[in-house]
Structure formats: structure tokens, C-alpha cells
Amino acid sequence: MGRAFAYVILGGGVAAGYAALELVRHRNGVSPGELCIISDEAVAPYERPALSKGYLLPRGAARLPAFHTCVGANDELLTEQWYKEHGIELVLATRVISADLRRKTLLTDTGETISYKTLIVATGARALKLEEFGVGGSHAANVCYLRNLEDADKMVGVMRSCHGGSAVVIGGGYIGMECAAALVAHEIKVTMVFPGKHCMDRLFTPKIAEFYEKYYTAKGVAFIKGTAVTSLEVSDGKVTEAILRDGRRLPCDMVVVGIGARANTGLFDGQLATEKRGGIKVDARMRASDAAVYAVGDVAAFPVALFGGDLRRFEHVDCARRTARRAASAILQDPAASNGDNAKEEGFDYLPFFYSRVFALSWQFYGDNAAGDAVIHFGDFSPGPAAPRFGACWVGAGGRVGGVFLEGGTREQSESAASAVRRGATVAELAGELERRGLTFAVDP
Ligand code: FDA
Ligand code: NAD
């Protein structure tokens, strides 16, 4: 059995929702019956960031349908009804198990063959498992990962049953930090374990990390750094202890694992060009090495104009939204597509943007933290203020600002930071701009 569509979006996450909206809204927009979305999740696309924030709150938690796409960008709420009204076939709880790009067909785990003229790959990323690091126990009833709604529901259930107990959080990245805050809100005592020297070591400087670690410590979170969990003691299907490399044993009522993610590219192995660090290689229009295939979101490695056309892949929601819109408008061949034609060689006009919110804190980062020759910290890093305000800027060649981090920045300060990175302003210009907007650029010795 089989069905045929002009457009198929493979994957039903953030990028899928934003691509669908753009495909419908575009002046050459798709007609009813032309578009199909296939997702192995049981619900219509939603704003995944909610899972580690509002969804985990002990009171007044966010629940669907409130956070379907595209509310995260203050746009329409695309419920299942919306897809129906626009004649979009939403094939849910269905996994694509193989793809034949030569025949332009996808085979699902229900045995259906779905064919396309144009395919948008939006398969996102998967959470790395402990077993990939030689540690067993992922399937224990009280071990939680966090990638999708099913994981979030499990975590909510486990947290409720552990009130007053203790948790080991494995990993000190985004998931680790955001979940630790949620655990504290559930009055669960947290110990975080990770191999790095400090939390969020892919982005934070030691000085930024020191602030957050002190803040978390004041909330009762303990940090064990520079080591790893080498095994989990399981009894009656539940983890009772995490055992560290040095033999230390941490008794616990639950475990949360956030040890990184990998792009879901497996279906296209040998069929599409991939990037060596993971991801499907695409051009500035998000088109892959097969002209009928586009890739967007976490799975896409695209040339970034701001970085001279360097291929980059981001695992962040803003990127998923923008690359999805970009692909959709490119597919419908709008000559006035958001990026303009002149950018097609050098890359997509994209300014990387990451953010997180934990406890009463909120940070944003714009640009690149890799290229800087030096990092300048500014503002007040003391743990005292109820509403901390500080930041850092990564300085590249010619004293130009390559990346800016802001904790507690206002909307205007964030806009200034973004604009400074985008136009390659000097540090002095950024300092003046932020000072005008009320953030002292007092550089720490
Ligand atoms: P996404 O993962 O959203 O969607 C992929 C979809 O494809 C899923 O529905 C998946 O099930 C499906 N799929 C995969 N393979 C399939 C197959 N073979 N067949 C069928 N379906 C298949 N970013 C940020 O900037 N700020 C934030 O605060 C957060 N917070 C956050 C919290 C949590 C818990 C996570 C896991 C992630 C974040 N992120 C984030 C990252 C952000 O959510 C992420 O970058 C986007 O969801 C990426 O969107 P995609 O659509 O590319 O993948
Ligand atoms: P991450 O890469 O942010 O952090 C991984 C952490 O695990 C690091 O601290 C690393 O040192 C540690 N680690 C690696 N191997 C380990 C091991 N064997 N044992 C213990 N620790 C180990 O990844 P994550 O936190 O798992 O996040 C997964 C995905 O979710 C990413 O794509 C991320 O971008 C996304 N996410 C983003 C946000 C956000 O942007 N605010 C929030 C949540 C999730």
C-alpha cells in the first residue's frame, strides 16, 4: 500500500511545525492534500524547550495543546485541528524505517510506502544513552532521559514519587542544568556528576560557570566534577546507587541523564553527503546533496554567512525555526525569500542564538564562542543580587565582537548584543551601547 504527496516532512518536531506554517502561508503556498508530515511521536509538533521548563513545574505545569508550534515564536498555535483544516496529512506514531532517495519513497513501520516529490528531513537528534559509554541501567524505572513528551511524562511521574528524596544528574550541560532546577523545585536533593571542569563547558567560561555553580549550590545542589558514573546499581528494576570512577557510591532515588545528543541521519547513510561532526550537509537554501531533499533543524549542517560560509550545525530551537522557514520558502521558490539571493554562495544569513531559563535566572547567547582570542567579562558576578546582570563577550580579530553572553539582560540589551555581533562591532562600541542601555561594562580584572 502507498500514498503519494508533493511534499513530505520527515519528523514531527519544532522544525516540522515551522516548515508547515511557512509552506501554508507562502504566496505560492501548498494546496490541501499536497503535504504530509510523518512523526514517530503521537502528537502534533510542539515546542520542545517546554519539556525541560514549564512541563516539569510542580505547580501550574504547561500541558498540550498550549505549547504546540508555533507559539514559541508568538505565532499561531498549530493544533491537530489546524493541520486538518489546511488539508495536511499528519501521520503520527509512525516511524520511517528506511528511505530510498532514488525512488523518492519512505517505508514506515506500519508497512506503508509514502512517496514524495520534495522531502524535508526534520528528524532532529536523539539523546545519547549511558550504554554508549559502557554504563548499563538506562531501562530502570527511575532513570530518566529527556527528549520527547513520553520521556517528560516519565520524569514527571518519577519526580512525584521521589519528593523529599535524592537524585543523581549525569551530565552538566543543558539537560543537566535545566533538570536539576526542576528537581530542586520538586524538593529533591540533587548531585550533579560530569567529567568536565565546570558546568556547560561547551559554552560557559570558567567565570560564568562559577556563578551558576554557586547559585545552584545555594539551592542545595552538589557538584562532583571531573569524573564519571561508571555503573548503576539496580535492584528490583530501580537504580539505588550511582558508582563513580573512583569507587564512590551515591545512593539515590532517581537518575536523570543528559550526556549529549546525536543528529538522526541514519536513514540517509550512503545516500546524502554528511558533515564529519554529524548532520546532513546542505547549502544556504537547506538543500542536501540530492536536489529533491532539504534538511532543517538539529539535523542540518549549513553554511553560515556570518562565519564566512563555514558549515555549522546547531541543536537549538531558534535555528530549527529559521532553517525550517528558509527551506520552505526556498522550496516554493520565492525570489524574495528572507535571505535574499546574494547570500546563496557565502551561506545562510543566520545569527546563532541560544538561551536558557532556570530558577529566576535567564541567559542568552549570540554568535560564536569558538573564534574569540579573548573573553571580556562585565557586570556584577557576585552571587548576592536578586536579579543578577552580567555578561561576557568573545573578542575576535581586530577587536571585533564574535559572541556575547548576557545573564538577566533586558530585551533592549539583548538586541544590542545581537546587533553588535551581526555587524562585527568593536568591544568599545558594544560597551558604549550596553552602558547606554543600563548595563555597566565594568570589566573585571
Ligand atoms: P526535534 O527533535 O524537535 O524533532 C524531530 C522529530 O523527528 C521528532 O518528533 C522525532 O520523534 C521525529 N523523528 C526522528 N526520526 C524519525 C523517524 N525515523 N520517523 C519518524 N519520526 C522521526 N533549544 C533552545 O534553543 N532553547 C531551549 O531552551 C531548549 N530546550 C530544550 C529542551 C529539551 C528537553 C530538548 C530535548 C531540547 C531543547 N532545545 C532547546 C533544543 C531544541 O528543542 C531543538 O534544537 C529542536 O527541537 C530541534 O528541532 P528539530 O525539529 O530539528 O528536531
Ligand atoms: P550537552 O552537550 O549540552 O551536555 C552534555 C553533558 O554531558 C556535558 O556536561 C558533558 O560533559 C557531559 N558528559 C558527556 N559524556 C558524559 C558521560 N559519559 N558521563 C557523564 N557526563 C557526560 O547535552 P545535553 O545536556 O544532553 O542536551 C541534549 C540536547 O538538548 C542538546 O542538543 C541541547 O542543545 C538540547 N537542549 C538545549 C537546551 C537549551 O538550549 N536551553 C535545553 C535542553 C536541551
UniProtKB/TrEMBL annotation:
Known cofactor(s): FAD
Family statement drawn from the similarity comment of this UniProt entry: Belongs to the FAD-dependent oxidoreductase family.
Organism ancestry: Eukaryota, Viridiplantae, Streptophyta, Embryophyta, Tracheophyta
Provenance organism: Brachypodium distachyon (Purple false brome)
Keywords from the UniProt entry: FAD, Flavoprotein, Membrane, NAD, Oxidoreductase, Redox-active center, Transmembrane, Transmembrane helix
Catalytic reactions of this protein: 2 monodehydro-L-ascorbate radical + NADH + H(+) = 2 L-ascorbate + NAD(+)
EC nos: 1.6.5.4
Domain FAD/NAD(P)-binding: residue ranges: 6-323
Domain of life per record: Eukaryota
Protein name: monodehydroascorbate reductase (NADH)
UniProt GO molecular function: monodehydroascorbate reductase (NADH) activity
InterPro entries according to UniProt: FAD-oxidoreductase/Apoptosis (IPR050446), FAD/NAD-bd_sf (IPR036188), FAD/NAD-binding_dom (IPR023753), FAD/NAD-linked_Rdtase_dimer_sf (IPR016156), MDHAR3-like_C (IPR048618)
Gene: LOC100824394
Pfam family, one: Pyr_redox_2
Broad EC category: oxidoreductase
Residue ranges of every copy of the Monodehydroascorbate reductase 3-like C-terminal domain listed in the record: 351-442
